[in-house]
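Workshop exercise sheet. Pairs work together: one partner reads the sequence aloud, the other fills in the structure field after running the prediction. Swap roles for the next sheet.
Pair: D.N. / O.F.
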Amino acid sequence: MPIIIGIGIISYKLYNEWNNDIINLLSFSWLLLFFLIISFVMMALRDIGYMLRLRILAEKGLSWKKCFNIIMLWEFASTILPSAVGGTTVAAFFIYKEGINLGKSTAIVMATALLDEMYFLIMFPLVYIIVGNIALFAVGGNAFTDSDSLFDNKYFYFAIIGYGIKFLFTLLVAYALFVNPKAIKNLLVFIFRLPIIRRWKNKAENTGNDLITSSLELKKKKFRFWLKAFIATFISWTARYWVVNFLLLALLFGLPHINPDAIYSIGEHVLIFARQLVISIMLLVMPSPGGSGFAEAVFSDYLGQFIPVGFVAIMALMWRLVSYYPYLFMGVFVLPKWIKKVYNK
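Structure field:
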């Protein structure tokens, strides 16, 4: 479903945009290949950051190989579930099947969710201040010139709603993890009183007890522990958002007679990064798997001004090929082997 939706939107855009004369301008160059490889390196760096964070939160209770399997499955789940749900909903199960008790697995996943949301809560206001509202939201047919007309901008509302969801979710997770983990236990016990699943009520209660214990352990962790986990989070998300920057550089160096003035300035690179951050926040509002369809469409509007004429749809496709579709295919290969391994044990 994600592939059909995403490729469908891109195919429509390619059909309307395709121009052989423009496409034939592309030619191979070593700089094109270099920046294309760097874009994949950024995604690899993102996954390494995730694996490192998982090792930190699990206090090295998971091997690097187990962390790799968990992250690949986690990302696979994120690609096939709506953005508002994400892979977090099933991540605790993946960690649990790798040998960590379910209560601690749940606490780890809650901690990763908290760190992820903290990144967005900090970075969005920061880039908003640095870039400014006009540069950040005046895209496509939604141009405006002052703060008053900002409220007529549809992307502004998408971003605010997404940011609000993240803010409320952060408060909820922080409360459940550090203030009242017993509330989660009580919720689990209440759910497992239902007739169909009542036989697992005792296990649910044990899971709740493990969650409370793990939450208390996390609460006692020193600042250095959380700083290391947040640095790993920062590396992961920042590397992911630099993918488009390097893909754009690859495209520029694939065009002949490149003008040095056409190379993006540091300020433009920051704006490209900032707009990707906003796209991710807006994706929370979309119910499609992995934000498919909306992501490809908004990419054209939101980053179109930085892409040479005739290459917008191609760049949207390349962006998803590097940062989204690989996890679908990795999941197809990793999931069957993983299921066979954990259930044979």
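Discussion prompt: The radius of gyration is 22 Å. What would you look at next?
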